[in-house]
Amino acid sequence: MKLTKLLASTAVGAAIALGSVAAHAAGDLTVVSWGGAYTKSQVEAYHKPYIAKTGANIKSEDYNGGIAEIKAQVEAGNVTWDIVDVELSDAIRACDEGLLETIDHSSLPAGDDGTPATDDFLAGTLYDCAVANIVWSTIFAYDKTKIENGPKTMADFFDLGKFPGKRGLRKGAKVNLEFALIADGVAAADVYKVMETPEGIDRAFAKLDTIKKDVVWWEAGAQPPQMLADGEVAMTTAYNGRVFNAVAGEGKPFEIVWDGQVWDLDLWVIPKGAKNKDTALDFLKFSTETKQLAAQASYISYGPARKSSAPLVGKFHNKDIDMGPQMPTSPANLANAVQNNFEFWADNADQLNERFNAWLAK
Amino acid sequence: MSLAATQNSSAAMNTSTEAFVRFENVQKSYDGEILVVKDLNLDIPEGEFLTMLGPSGSGKTTSLMMLAGFEPATHGEIYLGGQSINNVPPNKRGIGMVFQNYALFPHMTVAENLAFPLMVRKLGKAEIEAKVQRALEMVELPQMGGRRPAQLSGGQQQRVAVARALVFDPKLILMDEPLGALDKQLREQMQYEIKHIHENLGVTVVYVTHDQSEALTMSDRIAVFEDGVIQQLSTPDDLYERPMNSFVAQFIGENNKLHGRLTNEKDGICTVELDDGSKLKAAAVNVGGAGERTTLSLRPERIEIDPSANQVDNTITGEILELIYLGDHIRTRMNVAGNTEFIVKVPNNAGNKPLAEGAKVKVGWKAEDCRALDPLEV
Amino acid sequence: MTDVAMSAPTNHAPLIAADGVPLKLKLARTTRRMKWRAFLLTVPLVLFLLIAFVMPIGEMLYRSMHNPTGSNVMPQFSVAIQDWDGEGLPSEEIFKIFVEDMTAAKKNREVGKTIGNLATRVNYEIPGSRSLFTRTARKTKNIKEGPYKEALLALDQKWENPVLWRTLQRVSKDYTLAFYLAATDRKYAENGDIVSADPLYQIYLPILFKTIWMSALITLFCFIIAYPVSYLLSTLPLRTSNLLMILVLLPFWTSLLVRTSAWIAMLQTQGVINNIMVYLGVITDESRIQMIYNLTGTIIAMVHILLPFMILPLYSVMKTIPPTYMRAARSMGASGTYSFIKVYFPQTIPGIAAGTLLVFILAIGYYITPALVGGSDGLLISNLIADHIKKTLNWSLGAALGTILLVVVLVFYWIYNKLVGVDNLKFG
User: Fold this and answer.
1) B8, B69, B342, C350: which could join B336 in a potential S-S bond, CB 3.0 to 4.6 Å?
2) Contact B277, B337 (CB under 8 A)
3) DSSP assignment of A183-204
4) Of C65, C97, C118, which residue constitutes the final position of a domain?
5) Between residues 170 and 199 of chain C, which touch chain A (CB distance below 8 Å)?
6) What is the complex's ipTM, to 2 decimals?
7) What percent of chain A has pLDDT over 70?
8) Topology given in CATH for the domain delimited by B2-246
9) Closest approach of chain C CAs to the CA of B8, in angstroms?
């Protein structure tokens, strides 16, 4: 009697489990992004209107970047992620290694003003396997209640004499080397030219040496605003959207310094063999339309990848803050800015990270 | 070490006047509510083999641990060789001890175990070796020095434990149920060996056991413990022949009990009326006044079947319930005055008449073999 | 029975069971059935170990040496280049095959067989060469006819470098020691000799030695803290010790991340401990102590996390040591300290051995805690392995590092066995 019951309940449980797997495979679109405020902005601007329009189910998953998971899924032939938000260098590499579906640019919808997609997207935002949605940036920020007459330039960030206190930096070579060279007086336009030479790399590390003992290293995007709030660091590099949301959303007294910012792209990619490939492509087209990209900018301060979205960018969704000046692409913020050179990093990331780790351990 | 030595020498001077070991009004409580040892007073002369005998929980082991120094006395003083040792730590008391499970150090060889107390005393290497070898020979294990305790039999481990307690020549040895883990035959053999070692060395031994036959075999004197109090302190034969209360009578040896009421007492002999009305004469040992209840204690081997009238003071008729043939004697269970567990040991003599179950026979005994003690109601 | 016993010594023929079958055969038959049944019972475990343990480790060993990217991406070229003697540049014929293979590979979108894969692979050996491959591959389809060598050099002068071709020759072989070289801070020089990497890039051996040294330190701290705690636990009455044991085990029941985060809250410069010390005036507000995001933080957090692995074996051993041993020692005149050193301590060695081995091996492979609180100098070898598995995707190098770590652990285990004897371990 007891046994029959047990068997019955097991069978029911198994059926439910199988059913959910089947449902997952058939209908749910699995959208993978970076979590936190950023995913929230996408849910508000992309997911909700898409669900309203098509009735599709969207399952939102978080990850910490990188293409390891995509690679594992594709190699195992069991791809559960349908569409993924990745960084540019990862998109290029994954595409080169055959891990992604290719995307036909001519199939992307034209802008609201009628401009064809290939012209409407900013230069360098469309790739064989990837379509950019936002421009984001690594900047540095400080707590203005703790530092009077705060830092203005990247050089100030490296000036421990003028502004004593701990510094937060992302643990890795990327962006830090660019920052170090800008602080050392290299013009933003020449940064990668200098970095191509071994002397340039030595120079960047030498500059990092000057603050090394006062650096607290961070790895996840959520860490730097927290470190600033805790007073653990006097100033820290961070993703501009994270700092903006701490200011606009939580009322933190942080100030962003745009000088020397290194901006980069986030792009949608579809892993090769995704279960809902067609829905994913449809979602990709929908979410990168002029209107949706502009809407996202009212939830987080990342710039839309389409030119036609810029005039539509308004205020923060629940506060009277103009979003335009908060964007990395705002002209004032671009005065001394570097675009992340994905090719340089694709070539040199392994070697420079090794050197960075060796430098760190000394 | 030096303190132990001075104690020993002072003990030698004081033996004539003072006891070697003395408990004076010692009390012990673990929880502040129950006294495990109640007002213990005990003198042990040098060279004596004294056994603390009693059931578990009677306070005997606690008393031993207080003497060894592992438990502090809650009240009272303990003297060793005339000096109070209440504040002397166990390692300064110079007392040898044998534990229930031997406590031989498993990571050392037998020889290293024996050398341990000598190393502590910083003796020379040659001297240690000689003493260890002598100790091994004393316990008849001269070849076993290199073995580990786990490689020895239970009896061999026991001997090593005794040797280890003796090897540093303490004047006092404590033994806490040392034979409890051995089988019966080995236990009896070890009893004699320990006894002989005691006689040969002349050390003072305080021995704790719950086994009465062990106590009777080995001891000079036995202290019977019950409920934290010494019930009786006597030589083995005295304890057996002349128990002073019902507990001792029952605890030591086999014993028939008859319950009744005292009618009169004269010149140490009293008359007791049993509950079924029969009247018996008994030695008045531990009784109240006339009319008070008493328990008669009677050893099975002191009872005669079909006695001739002039040989005994009491006769009573009983019914044979069961006969058990034990070779040298026949154990006869009878119903006497309502006691159906009344045992008589009938010697297997050529002249004795055969007994039959169900038969009614007369049994009789002398008044002095029947001791009227404190009432023990069933 | 007596008959058989009597006849056996005189008759040397095999014993026969009652039904005429030789006794040995009969016995083998019955025991075989029992052995078979016992084996069946262990099948799930054997399968589990095979799938969850043996196969992944085998896969790791294999991956650390086997990297067929070269032959996968350029099947013809990888064979042809092996005939080259390594002098000057390869022949025109090889260049032709190279251009053809590259054009074909550019069209290939199959995972593991794209130009990108080869570019990544060569980039491990010659940093900065990745884009040369992806760039060239976009254009080789335009090379319709010879001379191929000139056509390729026209696309990019870098193809003139013989080092590139020698590297391609090496990369075209499926089996390679290159990842072990990289994992031990060495590399192939331009002439093919094995040389040490530039000191500025030497990371794996220093970190490996640091990992071993830190694991030893963590083990030592764990031992120093766990020994008295275990002793206390083993001597207390059962009810109290059970309660305290729950406190010891409590960290086991909390998420590792929560525990590590708690340490961050405690130890950071604006954290609880610094605040208390500032409040008490032990330190000033300016001289707050950096206790986390460095070596100190890693050691503190890891000692806390690994402590139960030391306490449990120690406790279980101490629990079996009766108090009479210490009493016996004291009754023989030994002081408390002497009894402890000579009698108690030696008997706890099996527990110490088990505890230190457990903690050391766990510490040497730990990665979450150093990743979270290690900061710049608290990095351990497993963090580098995780980096290569998760971030750089250089799985072969990750596998080589993992294999080296495995070998180190086995060597330590072997030394340990020589010193203590594995039979003497007592885990609980």
Assistant:
1) B342
2) no
3) HTT--GGGHHHHHTSHHHHHHH
4) C65
5) none
6) 0.80
7) 93
8) Rossmann fold (3.40.50)
9) 15
